[in-house]
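Hi R.,

As promised, here are both runs. First protein below:
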Amino acid sequence: MKVLEASRLGSLVESMCLEISTTLPEDVVLALSAFSERESSLRGRKVIEMILENAVVAARGKLPICQDTGVFSIYLTLGRDTAVQGDLSGELEKAVSRASSEGFLRSSIVRSPASSRMNTGDNTPPVIKVGISGGESSTVSVIAKGGGSENASRLSMLHPGAGWEGVIDFVVKVVEDQGAKSCPPLILGVGVGGSFDCAPELAKKALLRPLNEKNPDPEADRMEEELVKAVNELGIGPGGFGGDVTCIGARIAQAPCHVANLPVAVSINCHALRRKTVSI
């Protein structure tokens, strides 16, 4: 039996929260640079240039990439015969609190959301999800999503006969309605299948997959490329100013579902895709 100490996981998550808040992942930087060459609009290219410059300044000065430092979601996937010793929730909450203080991260979490909306003052509690894998190793992933990106995300229970065409129509319509408000160029996480509660989690976790890795499922890889192409044809462009590059990547995660259902969720993320996964 392999035992992971909750306090050590807390220390790891603290460092990950600080890193993702100040450093744009390399795969996102590479994607932005590559798509910039496809942008025919001078204004659009300037927007991407400013985004990349902002990333350099943030990393150099250990400053937040964006003033909206987001909601931290933590995904712990335990390998075979692995247990956690200690107060996992407590240690992870303290980790986020410490990182928020050390990194000067804006406090964005409120309790009693439909009434008093009192700010917790330290970005706690984070969203914590624990799962089990069939492999030997365990992983911990952290993603921080801002309020604008979350506001633009959507879920739909499509008619099962809608098929892939229905999925792509839904995603494109969501971006058409919400994309300009979400600081494009965008990255899309799409969850297909599962259940009403499962699809949004699939969509958000899909964003964890690097943009420079092809989907191991050839059909899903084709679907991802088709989504990017369809969204870019909307012409929303960088910063919402119009242009060729509205989306620099789409990631699809699927799960089996009931014969009478076709749940689809799209988790929209702005260009500041703040996430990291570490194997333990």
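And here is the second one, sequence first, then its structure tokens:
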Amino acid sequence: MNPNEKKAPLRALLLVTSPKLSKKAVDMFHRGAIPILYKWTAVGTAPSEMIDILGLGSPDKSVLLTILPKPFADEMQKKLKKELKLGAIDSGIAATLPLSGANNLIIRMLEGFCGNVNDIPERKEETAMAESKYSLIAAVINQGYSEEVMDVARAAGAGGGTVVHSRRIGNKETLGFWGMSIQEEKEMLFIVTENENKLKIMQAIGEKCGMHSEAKGILVSLPIENVIGLDD
């Protein structure tokens, strides 16, 4: 596994919206046959009294995450804005985040979805990501394997991580074609590390807890511009 073997301009598309609108968004993603999609629940931070006064509805939120080549992510973001009326009260937000690396399974799945991602030209912003000192590694694994993955990451130089529980809601036929586990319940492990350790950590997780293992891990990394709390 070589997270930087292919330099496709990938994006993580993140949607935070109400549970009701998230169902509509999931239908949109499924109609587009998007192969990678994860969902977890969250709670808004506004006080309940303020929510009532502003008519914002429930503080419960749904978070959807998918990975796409940048042009496809930009187009889907526009569709989400139009169909979910993002920007209106209690509608939610959609954001795209640049990825600085991904394991080969993700590259192959996206090529099956939209053709050769390497045919999409790089942009200047892609080279700028290499100047970032820190990266966020996100590992999506089967439920119950986060401690094992974290042990592997620590042995490769990681300091610590944060686990978020989520569900995979991608198309079962598509997932089966790629040999991915049908287990829906997932854990997402987030690790902040210096760039010089990123590749080593991702390779270690991929080798011991990747798709060939019971953890069925897939990996991406995102550049971080600034970070506080990691300095000695």
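A quick note on the second one: The chain has two domains: 10-98, 101-224. Let me know what you think.

Best,
J.
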